Amino acid sequence: MSKVIFIPTKKEYEKLFPNLSLEYNNFYYYAKYNDITIVVTGIGKVNVSISATHYFCNHHDVEEAYLIGIAGAYRESGLNVGDVVTVENDFFVDEGLIEDNYLKMLNEIGFAICEDNKTVFKTVDGLKHVDANTVSLLSSTDQLAKLYKNKTGASIESMEGAAFGLVCAKYNINSYQIRSISNYCGNRKHQEWNIKLAFKNLKNTLCSLLSVK
Ligand SMILES: O=C(O)c1cccc(C(=O)CC[C@H]2O[C@@H](n3cnc4c(=O)[nH]cnc43)[C@H](O)[C@@H]2O)c1
Predict the structure, then answer these.
(1) 5, 45, 119, 139: which has the fewest Cβ within 10 Å?
(2) 144 vs 63, 136, 167, 197, CA distance in Å?
(3) For ligand 1, is residue 124 a contact (CB within 6 Å)?
């Protein structure tokens, strides 16, 4: 049985594994770290779905799959930049429509992507448990951030989570999602990015959780 770590972008990979070079197989970049495979999926729902599906089709011994990376936190979440969290429920929040400034997810108009338009992850003890929204249209205004947050009550936002969770569920694979908060959502002028702190804390978590040095 094996473990695999999925990371959305090469930028994130290079901050976490600066000395480990990547190979390419036409679908994704990957590397081996001891007995763990690391897959760089590409940004967003489509890329993570292609990469994870291809990986699981070709590796039938996966026991645990981890999606790790950075994420934005909604202002009202109480989270700080640099916090590392374990995601429980992850919503396809922007698959839907907006009517009179009210956001309806696809499940509310009879076309659910999956049950309740969300996927559910296993969680890691010792980290803050949060719910997440997965978006293609980033919440780059305070108004949109509020719309997303109020819809599901999620604390954080990423671009891959719910899609990854759905692929893992289809393959019956135990999935985990660990994110380090790099910025706040909303108005791009006030997002307060701190990439360095986010990756320092994420790397520390990886070291203790998966014995990755
Ligand atoms: O600017 C940099 O140096 C840099 C270094 C590493 C990664 C990045 C990214 O922008 C990665 C994009 C990645 O991060 C997630 N993310 C982060 N903040 C948010 C957000 O506010 N809303 C949605 N997604 C966010 C996302 O999952 C992307 O895959 C930059």
Answers:
(1) 45
(2) 37, 12, 27, 26
(3) no
